[in-house]
Design a protein that fits this description.
Layout (H helix, E strand, L loop, with lengths): L25 H16 L4 E3 L9 E4 L10 E10 L3 E6 L9 E6 L1 E7 L5 E7 H14 L10 H14 L1
Antiparallel strand pairs: 1-2, 2-3, 3-6, 4-5, 6-7
The structure holds nickel (II) ion.
The site of nickel (II) ion (NI) has 4 residues, from helix 2.
Length: about 160
Amino acid sequence: MAVLEIKKFNNPVLRKKCEEVKEINGEIKKLIADIIETMEKNHGLGLAAPQIGILKRIIVARSDLAGFDISCLINPKIIKKSSKTEIGEEGCLSFPGLYLKIRRAKEVEVRGLDISGKEIKISASGLLARVLQHEIDHLNGILFFGRLGFFQKWKFWKKLKKLI
Ligand code: NI
């Protein structure tokens, strides 16, 4: 296993759409182990493959998040989203030190494959629902500030301009 370099916010790879995994072979399994190790080493709650520069639909999340004992999800899809939303603070390993309050669906149902290729369905709420939505966004090239409301986005750009 290896700890990989996490791509930072200005890297165009983070804005690309990822491809489905067609076959879960040894190479993919090794990649997943590396992504998990990279997440753990960086104390993240989750990590998506494009964040290490691989454009494949793979996400991982910390296995001790409530109800999520699987730690990796391949080709994940949100199949249901609650209309109820909630605002919570989020960080992203591609944006070290930046925390934003983001509105997300309170509950989601996600379908995907586990590492053995078995189809699984996760019903998540609270922090796990938030992490899954954040990581699945990464697979579609969407970064967390893209989910800010109009006014919050304006404030975000002002803050960013001061930093660079
Ligand atoms: Ni992120």
